[in-house]
Amino acid sequence: MGLLSKKDTKLITDPLADNNPITIQVLGICSALAITAELEASIVMSVSVLFVLGVGNVVISLMRNIIPSKIRIIVQLVVVAALVIIVDLVLKAFAYELSKTLSVFVGLIITNCIIMGRFEAFALGNGPWRSFLDGIGNAAGYGVILIIVGFFRELLGSGTLLGMKVLGDPIEKTGLYAMGYENNGFMLLSPMALIVVGIIIWVQRSKNKALIED
């Protein structure tokens, strides 16, 4: 028998596609709109949520039998807040400029509906291993969308990826710019993130008709 059973594998694969937290459950949209103008910020936010949700789910699962029902939300908030503080301190220590770019949005991980939703819906009723897989799966599903949106917004809006020029030099008119291409400044505005997410949702439902609501 492999490390992961069929049910365990689905905990990771389902959120990547047919049960994606952003495109299907419509959760965590705010950060998808706010921080995806740069691919690097999208990647860092994705990794941050991966850490917080993966570790947080395990902690809540381990504590699930001793948490009084009346204060479970408070306990969940304390756990996620502690993990977010760790992420914030690490970013400030090793990637200070990026931490300033992400600014308050790292702190807003605390109120991310995906995290609190998985604590409440899964970690409180399952063991640590399955809770860890569920956290990793949902965080990965969230991160994939952020990275896709960040990729296209930075590429089309700035002509760069991870800060490196990939379409040429817009000032010296090299690469695509020599053929008349101009950066689309609209891609750097938050509403364009919503449009890109909408296109992803459209493509996803076009490929899987079962996802189309009646």
From TrEMBL:
This is Na(+)-translocating NADH-quinone reductase subunit D. It is found in: Cell membrane; Endomembrane system. It is a multi-pass membrane protein. Keywords: Cell inner membrane, Cell membrane, Ion transport, Membrane, NAD, Sodium, Sodium transport, Translocase, Transmembrane, Transmembrane helix, Transport, Ubiquinone. Its EC number is 7.2.1.1. It comes from the Bacteria. The chain crosses the membrane at residues 43-62, 74-95, 101-119, 131-152, 185-203. It is an enzyme of class 7 (translocase). Signal peptide: none annotated. It catalyses: a ubiquinone + n Na(+)(in) + NADH + H(+) = a ubiquinol + n Na(+)(out) + NAD(+). Belongs to the NqrDE/RnfAE family. NQR complex catalyzes the reduction of ubiquinone-1 to ubiquinol by two successive reactions, coupled with the transport of Na(+) ions from the cytoplasm to the periplasm. NqrA to NqrE are probably involved in the second step, the conversion of ubisemiquinone to ubiquinol. Its main location: membrane. NCBIfam families: nqrD, PRK09292.1, PRK12405.1. Composed of six subunits; NqrA, NqrB, NqrC, NqrD, NqrE and NqrF.
